[in-house]
Amino acid sequence: MDGGVRISNTHVTRPALWPLATGEMIRWAHAEHPSLIHLFKPKGFGDLASRWLRRSTPVIVDMDDWEGNGGWNDTGLYSPLQRRVFDWQERTWPALASALTVASRELERRAIDLGAPPERVHYVPNGLTQTRIAALTPDPVAVAEFQTRRLPGGGPSILLYTRFVEFDPTIIADLLAGVRARVPGTRLVIAGGSAGGKAEPKLLARARKLGCDDAIIQIGWIDPGQLGFIAGACDVAVHPFDDSRLNRAKSPVKLLELMATGIPAVTTDVGEAPAFVENGTSGLVAPPGDVGALVAAVVGCLENPNLRIRFGQAARERVAREFSWDRLVDRVVRAYVSGLASG
């Protein structure tokens, strides 16, 4: 059980044994007699099982990323066969599904372009539970301990909370160098890391060339419960996005988490980011690829403590008001009602 939800996993996990895994899911569904099926991601075993089950049970399909060609298929993570299957799965579901939930406006347009009736497409951005929002509140004692242990000597700190998948890592070095030219002594705190470990060397090499590599503090992967006090120990967060199809389609939970900590966030005008951060009200939004604009936004926050406080409070209130699952669940319910009505 997880949050009152019963979790059942297939015994078979190997892709080569997909008929067995698909069969497990079909048998489980037949035994449970669900009123509807909500398929999370139009790919993999769940996709195949749902195609069979849709003959007797309404299927609502969730699209939270651009999975096929032009999106995750282009990242080099999959074999040619997997790419062909995933692209076919994503392209064919919108016209078949009883209803769809989509995490971004980009995916809303894509679903309609692929044949989904507009009235069956329901925009449901990512959100946070009230428990998660509360857990992200910085604890003053933990903040002070972290500052003493990892950020000795004081000075402004920029937080980068990332997996390094949304942007070219060298832009972060350019940003840091630009900020330090105007606010000497500024440090960059990196919480998280790349999956393959390739992004960090690129960032450090660029920073070394610019003479600011010694101002980078790498925390590494963190426990979700640590983000609140790490953010509380820093002055401003940056969460940039390159203007790519993949980024335009995603609904960035990490940005919501940063906002929920109360740290002022600087992001870029790509996809859902400006729908989360209201420029000039709950943070700052710069044009994508414009390092100068990012630098100016970060410096503006560092030089104005009152602005940081105002942005941080507004961001936290916005997440609790607009992006808590207590509020977003109504959108999911409407999708279920739509799916049941369309059969």
From TrEMBL:
InterPro entries: Glyco_trans_1, Glyco_trans_4-like_N
Domain Glycosyl transferase family: 172-318
Domain Glycosyltransferase subfamily 4-like N-terminal: 14-127
GO molecular function per UniProt: glycosyltransferase activity
CDD domains assigned: GT4_WbuB-like (cd03794)
Top-level taxon of origin: Bacteria
Entry-linked PANTHER family: GLYCOSYL TRANSFERASE GROUP 1 (PTHR12526:SF600), GLYCOSYLTRANSFERASE (PTHR12526)
Protein name: Glycosyl transferase group 1
